Amino acid sequence: MPDSDRPDPAPRGPTPPEPLSADVEAVIARWNPQGMALLKAVRGAGTVSTVALIGPDDANTTLLRTELARFEPRIDLTDPMTDANAAVESTAPSGGAPSGVALILLDAGSSLGADTLEVVRRLRSDGTRILLVMNGVHAYQDWRTVRSHNLELLTARGFGDLDILPVSARLAVAGRTGGDAGLIDRSGLAALHAELTVAAAGAEASGDERLTAVLARVLTDTKKRVVEQVAALRSGAEPARWREERATLLAGRDGGRATAMSTLRGRLHLARVDLMTEVGGHVRALHTAARTELDRVPPAELGDYPDRLQQSVTELTGAVDASIEHRLSELAHRLDGVDRTDLAPHRRRDPAPRVGPDPEPRHRGVEDHLMIALGASAGVGLGRLLVAPLSLVPALEVASIPFTLLLGGVVAWWVVRARRQVADRAHVRQWVADALVNVKAQLEQRVATALVEAETELADRVVRASAIRIVDTDRRVAELEARIRRAAAEQPGQLAACERDIAILERHIVPVE
User: Fold this and answer.
1) What is the CA radius of gyration of the chain?
2) Low-confidence residues of the chain, pLDDT below 70?
3) What pLDDT, on the 0 to 100 scale, is given for residue 101?
4) CB-facing half-sphere around the CA of 407: CA atoms within 13 A
């Protein structure tokens, strides 16, 4: 029979992929565990209809569908169904186009509600396979707590075999944009795709075609990861970053002790100036009030004034102590890196300053005798002036002499008494001035003592805190130096291992025409 008459050979189907050797599977499992899981899922997957997607129809769901569509084999998802009853009816075996698989999207920031639990119960009663996914975990720091609580709720309802996969489509986008395969793995989409592949496979391609496509993609992705690791090892970027971090740690090896001590001394000096100024103002105000009060005190109460001044000084001391404690507490709270338990420094309670001994009795001097003479002279002169009209009558001239002497004595007594009161008041006023000078000195010493004690205690805290940081810095520096030495020693072996893995993968990668 001529060749032209011979029938064309029947078209052959796709060549089934050869089974992977143990070496290739070990390389894939080591560099791309998610890809290995996907291969196992595709090998054991049957043909199931489209997966029903139950969840909110929002931007996060759209982004999740878009990123899942980039994985091979492609998983067909229905449009998001937000109505629980409609979702159950669409996945029920009695429906027109039963799905058999349902993907339920959960909120990563809130617990399972009664409606969602009811949907899970009804789907399980219909024999539908359920996949629970917590989407958007990147936006919630406590998503692990929420996931654990949701698992407890499922277990309490008898669904302890169900698991909740945490995924983040935004992390997958970031990893794909930056070429970071590790970030894509952490997004959880590869694990979700593997789970979906076990339950549902594409209906358009046969099993061999699907396995060939997935195998080529997994091998290419694994080789890409090994090549990236080789480039990172040869560039030395990681050891360089470790050296930079070590230099930064060594630059601040003192744990900030010098800066903290300088700041502490500066703030203590400022506190000393402010407190001394405040003490001076309080004492001046007390002195002014005392002088005003002395001008109004009756002469009979001058002897009790030292007790009243002592009471005022005690009240002033309490106000000064409150100012000292407030300032030291504020200073302690503004210190960085110290132990903040019981921050107010301990300070002993000294008694209030004493105003000193009571004023001594005023001793009479020449002035007092002079005032007696001047008072008698003035009294006699005033008496003669008053009885001068009587001297015109000869019979009354002699009788006016006793009256003149009596009036002179009364005036002399009054002048001496007034002079004594003025002198006593001036004597007490001078005593108050001297006593308040002593009180001011004692209050300033009180401030200085409190600041010295606070400086000692706070400096000790700074030293202890910096010592802890120095130990931690030394530990971290030692860890970095060990990493740098280990990286330098292991780099040749790691490069050789990576090149060997690349050679193994290249023997199985089929170039795409």
Assistant:
1) 50
2) 1-19, 34-35, 37-38, 40-49, 72-73, 82-99, 126, 199-211, 213-214, 255, 336-349, 358-376, 378-380, 382-401, 404, 508-513
3) 78
4) 15
Q: What is the pTM of this model?
A: 0.47
In angstroms, rounded to a whole number, what is the distance separating the alpha carbons of residues 130 and 214? 24
Domain spans of the chain, in order of start: 16-234, 257-361+435-495
Question: 391-445: per-residue pLDDT in tens?
Answer: 666 666 666 667 767 777 777 777 777 777 777 777 778 888 888 888 899 899 8
Q: Residues with Cβ < 8 Å from 288, sequence gap 6 or more?
A: none
Residues with Cβ within 8 Å of residue 413, at least 6 apart in sequence: 375
Which positions ≥6 away from 468 have C-beta within 8 Å? 255
Q: What is the DSSP string of 170-202?
A: HHHHHHHHHT-HHHHHHHTHHHHHHHHHHH---
Burial class (CB in 10 A: 0-12, 13-18, 19+), 298: exposed
Tally of CA atoms within 13 A in the half-sphere of 303 that contains its CB:
3
96 phi, psi to nearest 5 deg: -70, -45
CATH class, 16-234 region: alpha beta
Q: Which pLDDT does position 203 carry in this prediction?
A: 36
Torsion of CA 151, 152, 154, 159, to 10 degrees: 90
∠ CA(109), CA(112), CA(113), 5° rounding? 120
| Whole-number Å distance between alpha carbons of 464 and 252 | 16
Instruction: Dump the DSSP string for 227-252.
Output: HHHHHHHHHTHHHHHHHHHHHHHHHT
Full 3-state SS string of 73-117: CCCCECCCECCHHHHHHHHCCCCCCCCCEEEEEEECCCCCCHHHH
Question: Residue 73, preceding bond cis, omega within 30 degrees?
Answer: yes
56 conformational bin, left if phi > 0, alpha if psi -120 to 50, beta if neither:
beta
Helix (H, G, I), strand (E, B) or coil at 129: strand
Q: What is the strand order of the sheet 164-167 is part of?
A: 52-54, 101-107, 129-135, 164-167
Is residue 135 within 8 Å of residue 55, measured between CB atoms? yes
* Other beta carbons less than 10 A from residue 417's beta carbon: 13
Structure tokens at 432: 């108050």
What pLDDT, on the 0 to 100 scale, is given for residue 2?
A: 43
